[in-house]
Amino acid sequence: MDAGLLTIFFVLMASIAGCVAWLRFGYSAALGVAIPLTMLSATWFHLDVAGQDLDARTLAAIVMLALLAYPMGRRIIRPWFVLDWILLGIIVWHVVVDTFHSGFSVGRPFVSYAEWALPYAAGRYAMLHPHGMRWLARVLVSVGCVISLAALIEAFSGQNVWETLFLPVDDLVTRTTGIRFNLVYRAIGPTRHPIFLGILFMVILPWCVVLWEDTQLASQRGLVIAAAIFLAIGMLATVSRGPLLTTLVALVTAIAVRYPITRWPLAGVAVVMVSLAVTFQAQLLETFDSQLKGRQHSKVVVLDGEQEVFSSSRNRVFVVRIYGPLALKGGPLGYGSTATSTFPPDIPGLPASDESREILGIVDNAFILQTLRLGWMGGVLVVALFLGGIVTAFSLMRTADTFLMPCSAAVLLAMGCMLIAITLQLLIVFWAYDFAFWVLFQIGTLAGLRTRRTLALREF
Question: Is the pLDDT of residue 460 over 60?
């Protein structure tokens, strides 16, 4: 099948569903229904529009936001607060950096807006009415369960549902296809890599708490628990350690925040575990590598004139050693999007050996990669966006039960803790739009809730 036609199909499906929800339940339900449905479109489905490859998520967001601009009125552009200004800063700085390195083009601001603001805006405006959150949670969790089922099928059969039914995945992202731990295959679902799918489940899981807190579904909490468990099983089907471990961090953090009596014991355990991990780093990495594929598959790279053993686990350490200093040397304007769009990136200072440079080319740290791309100024803005999202979630907890139902303090606790987990996960995976859209969408929902509280206080 043609990727463009598939993209159009999923965009039409999502947009029609959103319009039907609009007509039946009001415009506030439109984004909450349409945008989550695009998660069912594989990320390798895209349509060429004016030289840009746009996927179903982006196109559906454009369509729905354009349709909703009138009924939302002035609320679509105000009130603004710090998180919105940080996002605007990233967009402007992105344009400045790429103009400096590659020259100005008319389409550059639109590309920057589509990458950063569009998913954020979709999440933000979906939250401006209580019904928006309610419908978003219902559809997002339902879609997540469908993806989880597909992931389980893939884990045990080795056959990706989207490849089988539609179109084979492209080779934009390299991944292993064999059985892991001699148990199951690693599921990728509608994304290009198992880790990307794991992050997708991390975005979805907090929305189960919205359903749990929704008084309209009080009699169906058993189904909510079942959905949460099924989503967790879907995450297990990726057989990715990062999402599983960072989700555990989110759970422990939530317990510590919710039950103050547990904070010191949990903090003590955390300090001990981190200390052991730092002390026995080499042994820990060797254990991880031997569990995955054995030391015989490790490679030797030349770094600073010395030969060192490279593996997938050790790559995260090499990224900080190699690319951390290069990111700072890039200055406030970095190296631009073109130079950092490939692995290895086209930047000075990489290992002299072609083989070593190729092996060490994947920048498995989203924040370092964005700093290489946008300079330390852009890197600071991106970090500020994530920290701002976390702070926003926790700051809204006190008044959530009064102004934001069905978003309660428990919902914001879950979102804040999971955003912490996602931030930690991004320290060991490169920034890919397969999941970046949904992470920005999630941050946008927090901005929308903050805006909704401001509007409610004005009317109070």
Answer: no
